[in-house]
Amino acid sequence: MAKLKLAVFASGRGSNFEAILKAIAAGRLDAEVCVLISNKSDAGALEIARRHGIPALHLSAKQFPSQEAFDAALLEVLARHEVNFIALAGYLKKLSPTIVQAYRNRILNIHPALLPAFGGQGMYGHHVHEAVLQYGCKVTGVTVHIVTEEYDAGPPVIQRCVPVLDDDTPESLAARVLEVEHQVYPEALQYFAEDRVRVEGRRVRILPKPIA
User: Would you please indicate which residues are annotated as catalytic (active-site) residues?
Assistant: First the structure.
């Protein structure tokens, strides 16, 4: 694959988006963020993008008469910015099959648990951490996975464990998980930048890094 030209989709404050930008600036991620898209007009991620001189767009299905019209507008934006890869970073809307098919195996999402546990519709943010604690888990973690047509069902690219402490609250657990998210998302994207990812059915194989 050519250099990653990313569209980042975010609905919230944009901490994973910012982690991606920091990884690029530090030389740990060979990519360029071409556009930031949010379904929320007041998302903090939009302001982060503007501070970095990145085109920042509020684009929501509510602005269009149909899902088809929204998909067409979204694809036009992605084509105009020459996007070849999509990173969902706290984006709380399900992408339509049209978008998934157009960018098959070129869309990543990050989830604050070890999928397939604690995934699916409605399982995001604090809902995930509350469920982990209610279940009595001793370990949780982070999953970066390829996006398919079903919620949180695509094959994992990276999974990393995070211990659950006896005195954890949803807030303390979320903070520790988020630190790991910020580490692994750029790592997963770099695998694609280095063309080391092979999708083999339900599995993702990461090729060894070439010896310089």
Answer: 111
